[in-house]
Amino acid sequence: MYINWRLREIDIKIVYYGPPCSGKTTNLEQIHAKLAGQQSKLISLKTQGDRTLLFDFLPLEIGECKGLKPRLNLYTVPGQSIYVSTRRLVLEEVDGIVFVADSQRSRLQENIQAMHEMGRHLRSFGYCPQAIPLVLQFNKRDLPDLSPVATLQQHLAPSNDIPYCEAVATQGIGITATLKQIVNLVLTKM
Ligand SMILES: Nc1nc2c(ncn2[C@@H]2O[C@H](COP(=O)(O)OP(=O)(O)O)[C@@H](O)[C@H]2O)c(=O)[nH]1
Ligand SMILES: [Mg+2]
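Above: the input record for the complex with guanosine-5'-diphosphate. Below: its predicted structure, written as C-alpha cells.
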C-alpha cells in the first residue's frame, strides 16, 4: 500500500491467486469490461506459445473513501508450476487476496496445494497469512460434478470468518461481488 498524502491518493494491491486455469484472468477481463474506464488498460504479459500469462495487471480507480482516492491495482499470478518464483514475487506488498478456486471435484487437490503454497510464499516475506484480507471465490459453478461449497470452505478457509463468493467468471457472475468484498475488507483494515 502506498499513500501519496499530497495528492491524497492511495494505491492498493490486490492479487488474484489460485491453481492453473481456475479463472483468474477471466476475472480481470470481466472487471475490465464492466468497470474500467477508457484510460484503464488490462496489461497481460504472455509467455511464449499458448494462452499462459506471466501475469495480468489492471489499474482501477474507485470512488473517494474518507477524502482519499483509492486506486486498485489488480494482479493475477501464473498457475503453472514452473512459474513458482513469479507467483511468489507478485505477492510482495500485497494488501488483499482473492483466492480463485476451481470448484470441479477433480480439482480439489490442486486448490489445496495452491493455498498451501500461497501461505508459504506469504510467510517467506515475513507476513502473517491470517492478517492479510482474503476472499475465497468458488468459480465455475456452471459445470457438472462440483465440490459442495461446504467442502471447499472446509479445505480452503484457514478460519471460519473468511468470506466466499460463488462465481461463473465466464458469464460475469459473482465477479463484482468478489471484488467488492475484498475492497471492503482492505479498506476496513486500513
Ligand atoms: N465453464 C467455465 N469455464 C470457466 C469459468 N471461468 C473460467 N473458465 C475457463 O477456464 C479456462 C481458464 O481460465 P483463465 O481465466 O485463463 O484461468 P487462469 O489460468 O486462472 O487465469 C478458460 O478456458 C476459461 O474460459 C467458469 O466460471 N466456467
Ligand atoms: Mg491467467
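Notes for the reader.
The radius of gyration is 16 Å.
Residues 103 and 148 are 8 Å apart (CA to CA).
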